[in-house]
Amino acid sequence: MIANADMFYIDGQWTNPSTGSKFAVVTPSTEVLFEEVAEAFEPDIARAVDAARRAFDLGPWGRLAPRERAGYIKAIGDLLMARHQEIARAWSNEMGIILPAAEGVSAWAASAWHYYASLAETFEFEKPLPQQSGNFGVLVREPVGVVAAIIPWNAPPLLVAYKLAPALLAGCTVILKASPEAPSAAYAVAAAAHEAGLPAGVVNVLTADRSASEALVRNPAVDKVTFTGSGAAGKKIASICGERIARCTLELGGKSAAVVLDDADLDLVADVMTGNAALMTGQVCAALTRVIVPRKRHDQLVDAIAARMAQVAVGDPLEQGTQMGPLAMRRQLDRVQSYIASGKSQGARLVCGGERPAGLDRGFYIEPTLFADVSNQMTIAREEIFGPVLSVIPADDEDSMIAIANDSDFGLSGGVFTPDADRAYHIARRMRTGTVGQNGDALDFFNIAFGGFKQSGIGREGGVEGLMPFLETKAIVTARPPAHLA
Q1: What are phi and psi of 209, to 5 degrees?
Q2: Architecture of domain 8-252+459-477
Q3: Which residues, listed in sequence order, are joined to residue 14 by a DSSP beta bridge?
Q4: At a CB cut-off of 8 Å and minimum separation 6, what does 194 contact?
Q5: Which residues are marked as active site?
Q6: Each residue's pLDDT tens digit, 226-244
Q7: Is there a common fold for 8-252+459-477 and 256-445?
Q8: Domain residue limits, the chain
Q9: Euclidean distance between CA atoms 150 and 153, whole angstroms
Q10: Would you state the CATH architecture of domain 256-445?
Q11: Can you name the residues that pair with 204 across neighbouring β-strands?
C-alpha cells in the first residue's frame, strides 16, 4: 500500500488535497482495486508551484555548493535502494511488470541517484576561460529554475530518477506529477526526500490527470517542463511551452528497428527479440519492434522467434517463473488488440499469438505476438503499439534495410545484429535514431545519453547529457580573476 496516498507532498510536508476526489489504481493481473490515491486539481497544482518558486527564489537550495546538494541526493538514493524491493512490488501491482524485472529496475533507479551525486565532484559548474583581450572569462552553469517533471505509468522509478536527480544536482526545485495509474514510485521519492531532510519546497509531489497537468505546464512560474509520454501529449506540451519560451525536454514514442545483417546469429536475434517483446509486456518506448532482415533469411528468423514466443510463460507477475505479465490497463489491451486486427486486415501474416493466453480468464493479458511478411507501410510497422507485438520486414540488401529503418516518423532506439563491431558502428552512423546497440545491447544508453530524433522527442536524459537540460549557461567577463578562481 502507498503511504500518505490520500495526501500530497507540498512545501516539505504532507498536505490535504483541495477535494476528496481520488484515482482508483487497479492491479492489471486481477482487475482488483490495489489502491486509491488523491487527485490534484488546479488549486493543488498552484500550491505546489508556489512552494517550488519560493524555494528557488528565496530558499538556500540553488545557492548551496553542488557537493552540498549531492549529499542530499545520495541520501535519497540510499533510502530508495534500501526500499527497492517494496517499491518494486507496488510497481508490479500497478502495471503488471514481473517482480524480478521490477526489482532490478528499481535498484538501477536508486543507483542513478548515486551517479548524479557523484557528478558534483567532476562536472564543471564554473569553467575559467582567459580571454585574448586581457579580461578574464568564466563560463557558469546555473539552474534553469522551477521544473515540472511529468512521468508516465510504464517505468516510474527509473523515469523519476533520471529527471529529479539531475534537476536537483543542478540546483532546480521540482514539482513531480505522477501518473494516476502508477503513483507509488513518486510517493516513495517524496518520503525519501522528506527523510533526507531536503529543504521545504525543493521537491513537491502530487498525482493529476490531463487538465490539471496542463495547468502545471501553463503556469508562468514554471521555467522548464521535462516530460515522458505520448507524442500527442508531447506536441501539446511543446506548443504551450513555445507560447512563453519555457524550456522543455520531451522523451516521446518510438517504432525502433532491429537491423539484422547477413552475418547475424539468428538464434541470438530470436532470443533478444523475444525477450524484448516480453520485457514489461512490450510497454517500453525504446522497444525494438520492427525486425528488418534479408529476404533470404526471413522465414528462418520468423520460425526461430515463433518457437521462442511459444515458450514464454505468461501469468501472474508476482509468481516465480512468470516471464511476462499483463498489459497495464483495459484501454491498453484494447489498443493492442486493435493493432493486431489491423495487421491481419492489411495482409501481414500472423505467425503466433494475438489472443488471450489459455487459462487466464481475468486480467489484461495478451500472448506474445509475431507478424511476418510485413510491409513498412502497414500500420503495425508505422505506429507505436506499446505491447508485445513484433513485425518482421524482409529487405533485399543492406541499403534497403537502412532505408526501411529510417522510414519512420520516430527515431528513439535501434539495434544492429552482427558479430562485427566495426560493421555495427558504420550501420549505426547511418541510422536516424538517438541510440543504437550492437546485438540489441542497450544497457549503457542511460550512462551515455538517451533520447530521440524526429518525433521521438527533444533533448536527452542520462549521463552528463541528462544534466545539461537543467542548466542555463552564463558568460561572465571581469577585469581580473575573481578571488575564488585566482
Answers
A1: -95, -165
A2: 3-Layer(aba) Sandwich (3.40)
A3: 9
A4: 9, 12, 13, 14
A5: 251, 285
A6: 999 999 999 999 999 999 9
A7: no
A8: 8-252+459-477, 256-445
A9: 10
A10: 3-Layer(aba) Sandwich (3.40)
A11: 175
